[in-house]
């Protein structure tokens, strides 16, 4: 597995270099070439996937997820090598547009939380419909577009330093406790539209004056959930209303004194995937994408309870129906309004 991880790291560097060189050489646009999807049904697609033998995924998955997924998929389909290049959601959007403009197809699947991107790509005809049995079984209400599928939900937990806090947190109102004045971590709203949705949801569920009351605590702001978790671990902040279960659990595994709890209700971001219409390995992409949505694939994604599965497989951190899912419902005007309210409340 160490060799596999190193191969993915090398691939990320090589892919970036190849893209830069190709863009310089092409100097123009044009439709990127695509492979051919087998006709004759799902069995024909699976057979053709083995012939293709590989695929490339651009993903915002964590290293632990990637390790679990590549191992489990390798056992299920040893004739298909999957490479997963780790890119943030915004990096993926930029990279994929550059590749399409240059007429260069590298990735087969995109996996990220850029909700508007999936909608725009669907409208442009740039996403391929999934054909497999598991994809067809994905709950219709959880589809973002016809071609994209929900891969998992990532709830936002409360967290605190168990050496500095004796009374556990149970809900967002606990963030207002006097002991957290000057020692409270929050998400910086500049982190993205989903955080605007989070703060809008907080005001609707905790009261219209909740942000003003939070501001009286003189909180510290963090853009990345990993930074927020590290602040709690070091007691830079005693508690935080912003976090990522995978990031915090990784620190806990290293001995960090962090306690975590999902409030009820809990707000959750969502992560989607889709097959690209110009996928160089369309059959292998179909097989892998379908496997991701199968029970085995979802168990590999969920791991030890870092995320919630749309299929509610064993090990998920919560039932999907118990979460408030953010799926890109806010438009630009909504995000601007909520951001202004946030800045006013916190004097920023």
List keywords for this structure.
single chain, 348 residues, D-Maltodextrin-Binding Protein, domain 2, 13 helices, elongated
| Helical residue percent band | 40-55%
Which strand-content bin applies to the residues?
A: 15-25%
Q: Number of folding domains?
A: 2
Q: Output mean pLDDT.
A: 88
Give me the oligomer status: single chain
Q: Could you tell me the number of beta strands? A: 12
* Cα-based radius of gyration, to the nearest Å: 21 Å
CATH architecture of the largest domain: 3-Layer(aba) Sandwich
Instruction: Please give the CATH class of the largest domain.
Output: Alpha Beta
The 3D shape can be described as elongated
Query: How is the biggest beta sheet arranged?
Result: 7 strands, mixed
């Amino acid at each position: 597995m160490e060799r596999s991880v190193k191969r993915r790291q090398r691939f990320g560097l090589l892919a970036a270099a190849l893209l830069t060189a190709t863009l310089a050489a092409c100097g123009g646009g044009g439709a990127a070439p695509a492979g051919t999807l087998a006709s004759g049904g799902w069995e024909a697609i699976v057979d053709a996937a083995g012939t293709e033998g590989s695929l490339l995924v651009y993903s915002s998955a964590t290293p632990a997820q990637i390790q679990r997924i590549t191992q489990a998929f390798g056992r299920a389909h040893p004739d298909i090598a999957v490479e997963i290049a780790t890119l943030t959601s915004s990096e993926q959007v930029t990279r994929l547009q550059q590749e399409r403009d240059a007429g260069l197809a590298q990735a087969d699947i995109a996996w990220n939380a850029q909700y508007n991107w999936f909608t725009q790509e669907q409208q442009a005809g740039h996403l391929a419909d999934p054909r497999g049995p598991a994809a067809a079984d994905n709950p219709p209400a959880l589809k973002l577009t016809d071609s994209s599928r929900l891969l998992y939900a990532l709830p936002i937990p409360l967290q605190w330093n168990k050496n500095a806090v004796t009374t556990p947190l149970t809900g967002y109102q606990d963030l207002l406790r006097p002991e957290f004045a000057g020692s409270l971590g929050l998400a910086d709203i500049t982190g993205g539209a989903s955080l605007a949705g989070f703060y809008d949801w907080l005001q609707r569920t905790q009261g219209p004056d909740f942000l003003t009351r939070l501001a009286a605590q003189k909180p510290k702001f963090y853009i990345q959930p990993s930074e927020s978790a590290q602040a709690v671990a070091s007691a830079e902040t005693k508690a935080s209303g912003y976090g990522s279960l995978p990031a915090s659990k990784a620190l806990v595994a290293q001995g960090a004194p962090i306690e975590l709890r999902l409030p009820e209700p809990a707000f959750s971001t969502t992560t989607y995937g889709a097959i690209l219409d110009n996928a160089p390995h369309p059959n292998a992409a179909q097989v892998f994408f379908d496997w991701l949505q199968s029970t085995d694939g979802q168990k590999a994604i969920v791991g030890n309870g870092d995320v919630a599965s749309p299929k509610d497989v064993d090990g998920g951190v919560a039932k999907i129906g118990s979460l408030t899912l953010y799926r890109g419902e806010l438009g630009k005007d909504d995000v601007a309004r909520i951001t202004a309210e946030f800045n006013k409340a916190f004097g920023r």
